[in-house]
Design a protein that fits this description.
The protein is built from eight helices and nine strands. With 292 residues, it is an alpha/beta fold. The protein has a four-stranded mixed β-sheet with strand order 1-2-5-6, with helices on one face. It is globular, with a radius of gyration of 21 Å. The N and C termini lie far apart (50 Å).
Length: 292
């Protein structure tokens, strides 16, 4: 919206996160920011990304929309850091599909004190109102761009109650994730699909559970079969570089790993209230589909 040109780097072959080894060749004198997306709440290689940012004097904005209560474990130091606390900025989402929700809404984490004041002003609709109430100025007015970002107190209270119970919510979500994983392992061994891979340098916050089908056609047939049996499974959004909006903006480079996930990734039902009996029935349907 502010005129930035987005340059896309490919994913790893075995997981949807950005391949940190493919970033440096894309950096030019015009590059300003690296935006790693922690897909499914699983950490990107933040050591490499932050090293590149320091080398080329770039900012890092973590897309931690799916990554609340997830961590990166540095292979160099062993230090465990919360996703969203590593880059200069991070964004979190509280959309209804996330681990904790407020219907819509999100959070901006500002991890670099150089940007605290301006972030506060933009949040305050472009005014220095907060400084006025702290007694730092004798009047306030519009000093920058801004908008209306504040949630209502009702929405904030709804979200706060979930934060207070985050451990219980996460424990249940991890149980659901593990039931799916253990229940589908034998089908993966037979080569029907691939299950998620969690790097040893990442934790799993159980944001979603997906499988990687062997082909676009196979995924479509499984979606159809599950729907016929009253189970809604969805593929994720199309790759941004292949979307209609970016048809004339992408530089045309092939991103084969990214495209592979876009064609084959299938998300299974996943929410806090999902009962074990229902999970078992979904697993059975998947067995029936592949071994009928």
């Amino acid at each position: 919206r502010q005129g930035a040109k987005i340059v896309f780097a490919d994913s790893y072959k075995d997981n949807p996160n950005i391949d940190a080894d493919k970033i440096e060749s894309l950096i030019t004198s015009k590059t300003k920011v690296i935006v790693p997306v922690h897909y499914a709440g699983v950490a990107c290689d933040m050591d490499k990304i932050m090293e590149l940012a320091e080398k080329y004097n770039l900012l890092v904005v973590e897309d931690a929309a799916q990554a609340i209560d997830s961590y990166y474990i540095s292979p160099k130091t062993g230090e465990k850091k919360a996703l969203g606390s590593i880059g200069h900025f991070a964004t979190f989402s509280f959309h209804e599909t996330k681990n904790i929700i407020s219907g819509e809404g999100g959070l901006l984490a500002v991890n670099d004190e150089r940007f605290y004041r301006r972030a506060e002003i933009i949040w305050e609709k472009g005014t220095n109102r907060a400084e006025f109430f702290r007694g730092e100025v004798n009047k306030y007015g519009w000093v920058d761009i801004g908008s209306s970002f504040l949630p209502s107190e009702v929405v904030a209270a709804f979200l706060w109650a979930q934060l207070e119970n985050l451990e219980d919510i996460q424990n249940r979500r991890k149980d659901i994730w593990n039931i799916y994983f253990e229940g589908l392992k034998s089908l993966e061994k037979k080569g029907y699909f691939t299950l998620p891979k969690i790097s040893k340098n990442a934790t799993n916050n159980a944001h979603m559970f997906y499988i990687i089908c062997n082909s676009l056609e196979d995924r479509g047939a499984l979606i159809k079969y599950l729907k016929e049996n009253d189970v809604l499974s969805v593929f994720h959004y199309l790759s941004l570089h292949s979307s209609e909006y970016y048809a004339d903006k992408h530089d045309g480079r092939d991103l084969p790993n990214c495209d592979n996930f876009a064609d084959k990734l299938l998300r299974l039902p996943f929410f806090y209230e999902l009962e074990n009996e229902k999970i078992d029935s979904i697993i059975k349907l998947i067995y029936d589909f592949y071994e009928k």
